[in-house]
Prior knowledge:
The protein is mainly α and 452 residues long. The chain has 20 helices and five strands. The strands form two sheets. Strands 1-3-2 form a three-stranded mixed sheet, with helices on one face.
Amino acid sequence: MSGESDHYTFTVAAEGKHSWSSRMKDRFKQKPTLLRPSAGTKSCTIFRAPKSQEESNPNAYKPHVVSIGPYHHGKEQLKMMEQHKARVFFTLLDRTSDDDDCAGLDDYFTVVASLETDIRNSYSEDLNCESADLIEMMVLDACFIIELFRVGSFSTGMIPEYEDDPLFLTNWIVAALMIDLVLIENQIPFFVLQEIYALSRSPYDGDRSINVLALMFFNRALQRPEEHLHRYFGYPITHLLDLFRLCLVGLSIFDRRSQEVEVDEELLQLTPSVNHLLLVGIKFEPRKSENLIGVVFDHGVLRIPPLNLDLLTTSFFLNCVAYEQSYHYCSKHVSTYVVLMSGLMGNVADAAFLSQCGIITNLLGPEKEVARFFCDLAKDVQFDFKDCHLVELFGKVTWYRRNKWRMWWAGIKREYFGSPWSFISAAAASILIVLTVIQAFFTVFTYYDPKK
């Protein structure tokens, strides 16, 4: 009996071992689809928003008018714009059909088909769509974006076919499109836009690159000189969000020297609130700068470029931080700026002070919304002083705050020279003390004067 039991146990163990082996072999064959292993490569540039950020701002990463790319394709609330994409493509083909140098319909699909592998590798998730569907999506989306840029660029002039088109002339639609085009989950690879633009070039475009044409469209909100936009031709761009980021951040993101500054590690502390810095004598001034992150600290003055905080810029910050936190090969300039501003605006009074200084133009509503926005966003930022373009600034501010003599003098100025009345009181007290000393001197002098 015992022998039969041992044999039964051995048989079950053997079968169990075989069963687990088969089971795990099947699991080993399954490849992750929601975050592919290749998502960490340099070629993968389009991501879902990080879950922590999405939970804090669930609607900040989802398009409201148009879907671009596969992540939100086919959603019910975006069908209106989807119906217009084919019409816009047909308008483009019809306008260029008389030009022998322009491409025909098949040329667009042939070019994009040759890029299919690179397109799929650009997304962090497996794209669950057939080749024909993906190619059609890319062609229609790219043509729609490029025609939108052509119509919306101030210097391009109106294309006759769109003179009365509500799609490109209705203010709320254009404003919504501008925001949707800088969402991290609503992107197509920039090389697709470049190829489609090259095929569809026309006299309307002049000698402008797709980079400049895109920035001229966004310039409705940026308000930059046109010659400033031309500086961003020829630099590596991954998608429209990256291009918008480059324009606001500036070409300093390519300057590695700014990240090679050596600072005493004891001085590497986050900048405290505006009120705290005012107490130690630090002043705040707006700084004229071509880029958003051009913050400098010099001789006790923190100079910050003015910031218009509206729906577009808040959307940009949210999505740009998500991009920088997701793409390993991307600099963290905007994330660092957000950490800095979050530290400065500890409460409503700090945000109100920066508004009074002309550093922030608040179009969001109450000042508390500004402080809350940067505070909430900075919570999700993985920050490293050593990989930070403002490392020298953080060090200088900390050194300035630690100087006891300067803190003492700042307290004296705040106590006795903070307002006209306190100054008058201090001056009167000083004069009284001086007169008392003089009176005492002459009293003693008269007493001991031998000529008396």
